[in-house]
Design a protein that fits this description.
The strands form 3 sheets. Strands 8-7-6-12-13-14 form a 6-stranded antiparallel β-sheet. A 5-stranded parallel β-sheet has the order 2-1-3-4-5, with helices on both faces. Strands 9-10-11 form a 3-stranded antiparallel β-sheet, with no helix packed on it. With about 500 residues, the protein is an alpha/beta fold. The protein is built from 18 helices and 14 strands. The longest helix has 28 residues. It has 2 domains: about 300 residues, SGNH hydrolase (Rossmann fold, 3-Layer(aba) Sandwich), CATH 3.40.50.1110; about 150 residues, no CATH class. Helix 4 packs across helix 13.
């Protein structure tokens, strides 16, 4: 071969390499980063995972892996697609088991009666984009989508994301390592809303699904069988939500399925773990983070009591998980700081990772009694509130300290005072001056945390550091569900 041909071929090869690198770089920049946020941490930490939660957004919104870590030393991950079919869940499970060797898989029974193959392609992207290319990924794409265009989009996501350049922000230019979300481990804690769902009638437990040949039931069986073939324990669950009749039939059918395979089953529709007045994100499907805390605590204790899952909290090889938990707490406090709506704010104070001081002016109690009373009671997870009803009946101001570090509460009604030297976050002084104006001093500082006179004032403290991480006041309006944070 002549020297000129070699030079031309070399230039062509270099050009092709540069072009491929540019296309890959541009493809990454315009790619929606949801899949990285949800799944990349799994591929990085898969060797450490002892429990996999597999299912729909019902699981992803509800199970908080970092709470399981902190309370029980359980290493877990949520492998859950939005609107995912049971076929999708099966394919995601099979892929996950190529990387992880869990002791327990928790399967969501939701949508077992459905015959759909998958969710819309955009929702599949959110779960599938981060999956490394493999025979499993190829099989997954061909199983989920029959349309050739949908398949091509999933193989090469630039085809769908190339027009995202108008939506690009700072996050899109960060490296994958910078975007990995170890704090949530596949979960999506939802702090954005509280719904007041309608009451629904409970069906008799003998009411079951009608189609036992449904595609959903077929693939739920395949998921169970895949785990049992590998010697992995299976726990079947049906998450709590205001379930219509068809979903109750699914939950009832799952009892038979669990008996058939000799596995445990938790039907949360038959429990009182959550309070539908405070814990629902929407009126018919999902929980908010208040409900998530309660369900995660329940299932963590259930796993501890029924399975031999190791507690890794004292194992130095898992020290990184303590760092992930710290990140998780910071994110949840940042959620609180960024919340403007009164009810969503109070809902988040149900977290046992923060302590709080809450001052309620007497005008607030009568203006928004039902919603506010429920949320104030919900903020105290260790003990019931004993004096709130008195404040309501006497139209008096109300002051509450929730000291989650000591699992203790303090309540004051009217213009009483308190000098509490030994909360876990320091000295607290509360009372009224000669002008009947309330004051609150914490940690022997000189700032009055009730300086902004509003119907509702809050101070939020990081339970682990004792740091005061948010101070807020709120104005309430005539709509009993509406109030906004004041700007100071």
């Amino acid at each position: 071969m002549s020297r000129d041909k070699i030079i031309k071929l070399t230039k062509a090869a270099v050009f092709c390499i540069i072009l491929i690198c540019l296309v890959r770089a541009v493809s990454y920049i315009v790619e929606d980063k949801t899949s990285i946020d949800r799944m990349e941490a799994f591929y990085e930490e898969s060797n450490d995972i002892d429990v996999l939660f597999v299912g729909t957004s019902h699981i992803r919104y509800t199970i908080l892996p970092m709470e399981l870590w902190h309370n029980y030393g359980i290493t877990s991950y949520d492998i859950c697609g939005s609107f995912a079919s049971q076929l999708e869940s099966y394919r995601y499970l099979v892929d996950a088991l190529e990387y992880a060797e869990p002791d327990l898989v928790v399967l969501d029974g939701y949508k077992m009666s459905y015959n759909e193959r998958s969710a819309e392609t955009s929702f599949v992207h959110a779960q599938l984009d981060a999956m490394p290319m493999s025979i499993n990924k190829i099989k997954t794409i061909f199983d989920l989508k029959e349309d050739i265009n949908d398949r091509m989009q999933l193989f090469w996501d630039f085809a769908i994301y190339h027009s995202r350049w108008k939506e690009l922000n700072e996050e899109d230019f960060k490296s994958k390592d910078e975007l990995i979300n170890y704090a949530d481990m596949g979960s999506t804690p939802n702090v954005k809303d509280i719904s007041d769902p309608p009451k629904y009638d409970k069906l008799d437990k003998n009411e079951k699904i009608k189609d036992y040949n449904a595609l959903g039931l077929k693939y739920l069986r395949k998921s169970i069988e895949e785990c049992q073939k590998r010697g992995i324990d299976v726990l079947l669950v049906y998450m709590p939500f205001p379930a219509k009749a068809d979903y109750q039939r699914e939950a009832n059918t799952a009892y038979d399925l669990a008996d058939e395979y000799g596995i445990n089953y938790i039907n949360f529709l038959d429990t009182d773990v959550i309070d539908y007045k405070t814990d629902c994100l929407d009126y018919n499907t999902h929980l908010n983070i208040s409900g998530s805390y309660k369900v995660t605590e329940y299932i963590g204790k259930y796993i501890k009591d029924n399975y031999g899952i190791a507690d890794h909290r004292q194992d130095s090889e898992y020290d990184s998980w303590n760092g992930y938990f710290d990140e998780y707490v910071v994110k949840r406090i940042e959620d609180i700081r960024n919340t403007k709506e009164t009810d969503n704010y109070l809902m988040q104070l149900s977290s046992k990772n923060v302590s709080s001081c809450i001052y309620v002016d007497k005008s607030l109690v009568t203006l928004q009694r039902d919603r506010m009373v429920n949320l104030l009671k919900n903020a105290s997870q260790y003990r019931p509130l004993e004096k709130l009803d008195e404040a309501i009946s006497t139209n008096s101001s109300y002051f509450l300290i929730v000291d989650n570090g000591a699992q203790q509460i303090y309540e004051i009604v009217g213009e009483g005072g308190a000098d509490i030297p030994n909360t876990t976050f320091g000295h607290v002084q509360y009372g009224f001056n000669e002008n009947h104006e309330p004051f609150l001093y914490i940690q022997d500082g000189d700032r009055n945390y009730l300086e902004y006179k509003s119907e509702l004032n809050t101070v939020v403290i990081n339970k682990y550091l004792g740091s005061i991480d948010d101070v807020a006041s709120f104005t309430l309006y005539e709509n009993p569900y509406y109030g906004l944070r004041n700007e100071h």
